[in-house]
User: Fold this.
Amino acid sequence: MGDVSSSDTPLKATFKIKLNGETVTIATVGQAYRFITNLNSVEWMEFRTLHDEAVSALEKAADNAMLAIPATNALRALFVRARLL
Assistant:
């Protein structure tokens, strides 16, 4: 597996999330991976299962672009549950 955080594999949707008054755009596997892994793990504790599923899906999609749809769906589920979308 390559470096997931630098993957340019496009997601099947672009997410625009407001965080601390700034809009963050997430359009690639690498951007999404950095976003959900750079935040403090305590912040994701409530959504642990969804977070773990999203991380796993992104890691798989970094090596196989055909898995971008499941990765996008896992991210969407996490962001909706966390009320970021």
